[in-house]
Design goal:
By secondary structure, this protein is of the alpha/beta class. The protein is 35% helix and 20% strand. It is built from ten helices and eleven strands. The strands form two sheets. It has a seven-stranded mixed β-sheet with strand order 7-6-5-8-9-11-10, with helices on both faces. A four-stranded antiparallel β-sheet has the order 1-2-3-4. Helix 7 crosses helix 9.
Length: 321
């Protein structure tokens, strides 16, 4: 796979600790990862988040559950054997929960990208599994360092709602796969007028501008009573009130089999993830289908994929024309 300057499209070569094009433009390699963006950007909350919770969602560090593997293969519906030798692009890796799945359970070549410095955690978590098949880059979804029409498959899970321009993000993903190749995405869905009648959207204007350390401190100080209240509401059959409780929906989103310690850690992580990102743009599934059609891909599936414990994700799958 040739790596290019995302702006000029010139091929890059490694010179010392930089990637350099024919005009002398340089991109640094830091901690073994090529960097195509400035260290400080709108995804800084994710850098902070994944430095703090680098192993929380990794299957191999949670021996009682395989939530990431289940979600990945349920959403993509890809066969492990069919991925052997394929070049797969992952956009928005975070700390590498799905990178781990691809590397452990397939023989694909994985090119993994994130806009934040979470790539450092991903590399640390997964580079030992199969170094020859794992390639990590810090880059923008809008300026990926690969030629168009390069990949056999692309997936982007848990990311699109946090990008500045949802449709432009979809178009960028489509551009990188070959004709006849598949793209799989998931995202926060708009399910009705009540979607944004939620504590998340009421508090985000304030909390997303709070320092990450202060926000995390507030969540950690309050997480015990929030968890207890969350379960009390469900037990009393008034679970709808949890949409006004500043905590992630544990009952309907967490995998089965978590210990109490794991549940608390996941609750802190996902609650921080509710409030801290710069962007949070849920979409109607029908609108995302139109985005794919408008940008040269035929949708093969659109709707919800369900996992253990009745959790679900809004998924769109498409084939590039």
């Amino acid at each position: 796979m040739k790596i290019i300057n995302p702006t000029t499209k010139d091929i890059l070569s490694k010179v010392g600790q930089n990637l350099v094009d024919k005009s002398g433009n340089k991109f640094p390699i830091v901690n073994e990862i090529p960097r195509f963006v400035k260290p400080d950007n709108y995804c800084d909350s994710f850098r902070f988040q994944w430095n703090k919770f680098s192993g929380t969602q990794l299957d191999e560090k949670n021996n009682t559950i395989k939530a990431s593997k289940e979600r990945f293969f349920s959403e993509t519906n890809w066969e492990q054997e069919d991925l052997s030798g394929k070049n797969i692009l992952e956009v928005g890796s975070g700390a590498g929960r799905f990178s781990e799945v691809v590397l452990l359970h397939t023989q694909a070549n994985l090119y993994s990208v994130d806009y934040s410095d979470a790539v450092t955690n991903n590399f640390s978590n997964n580079s030992h599994i199969s170094p020859g098949r794992f390639h990590v880059y810090q880059a923008s979804i809008y300026e990926l360092p690969f030629f168009d029409n390069s990949f056999d498959k692309v997936f982007c899970l848990g990311v699109l709602q946090h990008t500045p321009n949802f449709e432009q993000s979809v178009a960028s993903l489509i551009s990188k796969v070959k004709s006849g190749a598949e793209i799989v995405v998931d995202f926060y869905p708009i399910q009705g007028w009540w979607t944004k009648v939620h504590i998340k959207y009421m508090l985000r204007p304030v909390l997303k501008n709070m320092s990450h350390k202060k926000l995390l401190f507030i969540i950690e100080k309050n997480i015990d009573w929030l968890i207890k209240t969350h379960f009390i509401f469900h037990k009393l059959k008034i679970g709808f009130l949890n949409r006004f409780l500043p905590i992630v929906d544990i009952v309907n989103t967490f995998p089965e089999g978590l210990t109490l310690k794991q549940m608390k850690e996941w609750a802190i992580l996902d609650t921080f993830d509710m409030f801290s990102p710069e962007f949070d743009n849920p979409q109607r599934i029908s609108k995302v289908v139109s985005m794919f059609d408008n940008n040269g891909a035929d949708v093969t599936f659109s709707g919800y994929k369900y996992f253990s414990n009745n959790s679900k994700a809004a998924v769109v799958k498409a084939i590039k024309r």
